[in-house]
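Teaching soon. Invent one.


***
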Amino acid sequence: MDLAELKHEELLLRFFSAAEVEAGLDYPRLIDALFETFRRGGEAMPVRQSHEVGAFGAPGHLLLMPAWQRGTALGVKLVTVFPGNASRCLGAVSSLYVLLDGTTGQPRAMIDGEALTNRRTAATSARASRHLSRKDAHTLLVIGTGRVAASLPMAHRVVRPIKRVLVWGRNPQRAVALAAALSREGFEAQAVVDLPAAIAEADIVSCATTSTEPLVMGKHVKRGTHLDLIGSFRPTMRESDDEAVCRSRVFVDTYGGALAEAGDLLQPISAGSWQPSEICGDLHELTRGARPGRIHDDEITLFKSVGAALEDLAAASLLVGIPLGNPPPDQQS
């Protein structure tokens, strides 16, 4: 329905709780929406602004992430990242998303940003996995025990036959709790303490942490593995070492975001062991078929995601029921 035809009361600002976001953004539909959005490309998606806002010697970051498609929708996500929140039994990431009408500029919705981020982040990883992981991948290692990490197995299960999930975390009790929760979702899930052994066993390694030191070492990665690196979003953060990057065919969510923020890539570049020209493609190129994804089963692939505002806009629009436009002719992988 055209926005001009909507009744006034239907344009009133709505608030979507975390439960409503999770219920309204099932992974199959969201993964498909992200596919169409990245294939089409967004009109505007500035590299996000990041500001240090920590207090009392503890780190804290404020991120501003706008995106828009002219005449349809525009939105901005306000994000805070406080890594020390784990000691307070709180998530490290908090956020709020504001969606506005692209024709009038009027607010359409305020959305629980954390739930939106968790869903679209996991769905983006699954979208990339459909291009980059082996089709028979069935063992997933989740490194991290936060809310994004907890979302990853359900999303990856949509695109690959994931049956077994290994969970590693710095806090073994949280890893055990997450494994138990995943078992209730139908996975063969277990917490692990030997991270190198788990990396060597996994078909897909999904890392969602706020680490500043490498956790995934290239020497432990077996041939055919897909590395899904999500957590680091600043040049000083990283989840993999140089060898993991150098052994892999590397893909990113967006060139601009990755080369501005991804410590997993910027640090090997600074060390002279890897070059930006070695990036094999971004999600726009993968979804359009302009760049090949996985070429053979023995190669190691790496997807580095720093998060893109276009993902938020696509997820929020899907939730509210605003079509972002018709994609180009289908080029499914």
Confidence is low (pLDDT under 50) at residues 5-9, 326-333.
